[in-house]
């Protein structure tokens, strides 16, 4: 079971190459969960301090990982 988070989960993505689950959160951050160790690896926060309405993640590895998000200010961040 994954831990609870302090913001809404907007998207998830399996990064099969790295054995991680990326969890996109509404505070414009992404948590990386190690599936084999069942542990949080890191949580990456965007320098843009805003809440999100939506998020979409692509890629099969950390190296190829991309995030696009829509903010409450009607902006799109990539």
Shape: globular
Would you identify the CATH architecture?
Beta Barrel
Question: With helices defined by DSSP (H or I, 4 residues minimum), what is the helix count?
Answer: 0
CATH first level: which class?
Mainly Beta
- Helix proportion of residues, in percent? under 10%
The largest pleated sheet is described as: 4 strands, antiparallel
Distance between the termini: 30 Å
Query: What class would the helix/strand composition place it in?
Result: mainly beta
What's the structural domain tally?
Answer: 1
At the fold tier of CATH, the topology name is: Thrombin, subunit H
The whole-number mean of residue pLDDT values reads 91
Cα Rg: 12 Å
Give the tags.
WD repeat; WD40_repeat_dom_sf; four-stranded antiparallel sheet; Transducin family protein / WD-40 repeat family protein; Thrombin, subunit H; three-stranded antiparallel sheet; repeat; mainly beta; 78 residues
Describe it for me?
By secondary structure, the protein is mainly β. It has a single domain, classed as Thrombin, subunit H, CATH 2.40.10. The chain is built from no helices and seven strands. It has strands at residues 9-15, 20-25, 29-34, 39-45, 52-58, 66-71, 76-77. The strands form two sheets. It has a four-stranded antiparallel sheet, with no helix packed on it. Strands 5-6-7 form a three-stranded antiparallel sheet, with no helix packed on it. The protein is globular and about 40 Å long.
